[in-house]
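ok trying again, last paste got cut off:
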Amino acid sequence: MSLFKLLEWFQQMDRRIIFLGMAIAIVAPMLVPIPLNFEVDERVQALYDEVDALPAGSTVLVSADFDPASRPELEPFFRANLEHLFRKDVKVVMVTLWEFAPPLVVPILDEIAERYGKEYGTDYAYLGYKPGKELAIKAIGENIYKTFPKDTKGNPVDQLSVMQGFKQAKDFPLLISVSAGFPGTKEYVLQIQGQYNLNMISACTAVSAPDYIPFYKAGQLTGLSGGMPGSAQYEKLVYPDGPPDGVRLLATQSINVLNLGHLYIIALIILGNVAWVLTRPRNVAAGGKV
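nice, full thing came through this time. structure:
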């Protein structure tokens, strides 16, 4: 087949071939890891540095506020963040403001804590879900013991070893907001961050990231991860030499799928235009349409 015929065929090929190519571009990196290099954003690097600077034995407050719809974007960060914290021997106190979050976040918290040999009540605790949106956030800022009198296991929160000395949000050296929307990062910043001058970082969905960048530039957030790309960048920092056995880099794998899919589409656009330019003179000479 001559080059001209091949280019003509390319412009008129069955759309099912295009769909098949896209399917291969999506499935291939899921079956066989294809490492694609990418840069780490300044905001994600700042977030990682904040967590990495925590001394062993310190305690952080994590607000895990996402649902099944936002899980693909935020669960990879959530997992990598817990790995990072427990690996540094940092204690974790977790709360949620979204009613659909507990079934998602509690199994992950217990799984990773067990892998690192952490003891509930001493090294970590899950205080539960609190309705009330902004009012719940205000209450967390004022008095956590009153906001969560007992954890989900029925233990008095003020008697948990991990909660000793942490009555208010300001008592924690770092607040980590894993936020899919309202209520979440924005409400924490508006309601209590400024009032108590909290050291706060956030992981949010891609659609929310542009709204939170001003908070980062103003110093109200000291680190920010946005969507799947941010989660993949954080995974790259947490696992510079690759993940240990049994740990999957969910965001890195997903971002490779997106990248290959986009590269496939870009390649089709470029080849389509090249084919049109190269075949146009002959088509015009043959009396075809320009």
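cool. The longest strand covers residues 59-65. The beta strands are 59-65, 91-96, 124-129, 175-179, 200-204, 223-226.
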